[in-house]
Amino acid sequence: MNEEEPADENDLSPNAVLKVRDVNRTFTMGEVEVEVLRDLSFDIYDGEVLAMVGPSGSGKSTILNLIGGLDQPTAGQILFEGTDLAKVSASQLTRYRRQHVGFVFQFYNLVPNLTALENVLAAAQLASKPLDAEEMLAKVGLAERMHHFPAQLSGGEQQRVAIARAVVKNPKLLLCDEPTGALDFTTGISALELLLQFNRDLGTTILIITHNTALADVAHRVIHLRSGEIVNVQVNAQPKPPAEIVW
Ligand SMILES: Nc1ncnc2c1ncn2[C@@H]1O[C@H](COP(=O)(O)OP(=O)(O)OP(=O)(O)O)[C@@H](O)[C@H]1O
């Protein structure tokens, strides 16, 4: 991406896709300042599945929005390929989002008047090196349903479309906000399996934010967040297959 700040080669270790450094996010509500994130620092490594877990209100969505270029920090740096996302313009942030980030949300966020295929194609058009939309829908098991509208699909199927839509961009970072939150247990497990399959097959780096600590067992690393601060970072030497977790 275009850089406003000169890249500092020493700032980015070779295997970090993104570095969060001393990040603070404060929201002002009337006369009250709410400090939601406090001096957060961590890396997201290339090719890893990273889970960020914490109770409601701990700041998970706030950090996801910052990493996804939907918001900017009050202080600190977010370094992506040597560029500080905290300092770029709104249009550069939009370009970063379009080209490098895929989002999977709890409630799918599909465009209701577009078919599954059209939803995926719309995302592909935004990316510079997209993958094949029909192939991605086939990979998520929806080859036969690609001309259906979201309302004609089950929740699990809609989440599969949302995953295909995120992955078709071939993003550097796949950001998942409670990806199983609206699904029943079995459907949730299979959505998780799909995400991990893309991580294995395409090497997509995945960040999953969730309040569901069971999901963390499938990740390579887990960051525990509480009141806007990191309280623990756990490495799972042997992440569990989704079929072995229960919630
Ligand atoms: N735009 C905003 N203005 C004011 N306060 C905000 C704003 N966004 C978030 N907050 C506050 O920041 C805190 C953290 O919110 P956030 O949504 O990041 O938490 P979360 O861990 O994702 O919670 P949940 O699991 O319930 O979604 C909450 O107290 C919330 O009220």
TrEMBL record:
Would you name any one GO CC term?
Answer: membrane protein complex
**Can the keyword ATP-binding be found in this entry's annotation?**
yes
Checking SMART domains in the record gives: AAA
Keywords carried by this UniProt record: ATP-binding, Nucleotide-binding, Transport
Q: Which GO terms describe its molecular function?
A: ATP binding; ATP hydrolysis activity; transmembrane transporter activity
- Keyword check for Chloroplast, yes or no: no
Q: Write down the superkingdom of origin.
A: Bacteria
SUPFAM superfamilies per record: P-loop containing nucleoside triphosphate hydrolases
Q: Domain (ABC transporter): give its ranges.
A: 18-247
- Pfam name, any one: ABC_tran
Gene3D superfamilies, per the entry: P-loop containing nucleotide triphosphate hydrolases
> PANTHER family recorded for this chain?
BLL7988 PROTEIN, IMPORT ATP-BINDING PROTEIN
Stated family: Belongs to the ABC transporter superfamily. Macrolide exporter (TC 3.A.1.122) family.
Q: Tell me what this protein is called.
A: ABC transporter ATP-binding protein
